[in-house]
Design goal:
Blueprint: H1 36-71, E1 73-75, E2 82-84, H2 87-92, H3 95-128, H4 132-145, H5 151-161, H6 166-171, H7 183-207, H8 211-219, H9 224-253, H10 256-261, H11 269-278, H12 286-318
Antiparallel strand pairs: 1-2
Length: 319
Amino acid sequence: MADQTALPAPAAGSVPVAGAAAPVPPAPDVRGGDTPRRRGARRHRWPVVVPFFAFLAVCFGLPAGTMAYGAFTVVDPAGGAGRFSTENVSGSLSGAYATGLTGSVELSAVTALLATVIGTLIAQAVVSSPRPALRGIVVSAGGVLANFSGAPLAFAFIATLGTTGTVTQLFHLDRTGFSLYSFTGLVLAYLYFMVPLMVVTVLPALDGLRSQWQEAAASCGATRGQYWLHVGIPVLTPSLLGGAVLMFGTAFASHATAAVMVGSSQPLITIQIANALNGNVLVGQENLALAMSLNMVVIALLVMAVQIPLQRRSARWLG
């Protein structure tokens, strides 16, 4: 019978004996390692995103650069030569143009606040409803109405609430002093597509409120109002603020609805830009229009700078 006595372990640095189990080398630490395979995979990803960056450069970078160049360029009417100057930018922030910028900001702020409150209440009613079909109807209608804006919406409001509109004549709204072609009329028209947009935007955040939180609050003796005051509203605050910022940006960039409905009777920056580009007020003010557009871009960038952190915080809470 063969001798089955265990062989002694080989000394360090010696050659392992045939038949004995070879020592298992330690597993390489791949945490945070940058292996050649990973570097090669990273290099292969770059050609995929090149068309995307090319699209951004042509469709966004080139117009933005042209706008910035024209905003800081003044053309000599006699010789046609251009020179660098801040006259256009300073002119776009003074006089009637400053009034238009202020009017657009005020209209956007009022409509954003109202759309946030009304849209959140409607969305909460949909989430709390025991009828599943109601949610599908509201979401479908919200998606359609949120995209119904511009000239068709303006014509619909003029035919309904205008001076000779159906509702105006039926309820004699003209006797109350109501006018569709005013700041209040613009607010009503903007809310028509902004409230559905807010409903669609805030529904996922309301769905993220876990029912266990409300049950735990009730088991501790908290009322429904206390739950919303100390749990629901604090958790939803980033989402609500992000929705409000989105509503502000939507109203601030809207042009066709106000242009068709009120024209130049209300001071708005978008209408002033269109008038300057078309030469309706003064000829040769194209660069001034570019300066006003640059002001709008700066405000839009500020809006995005506020919205992105709010979206991240909301995703962290409700994700």
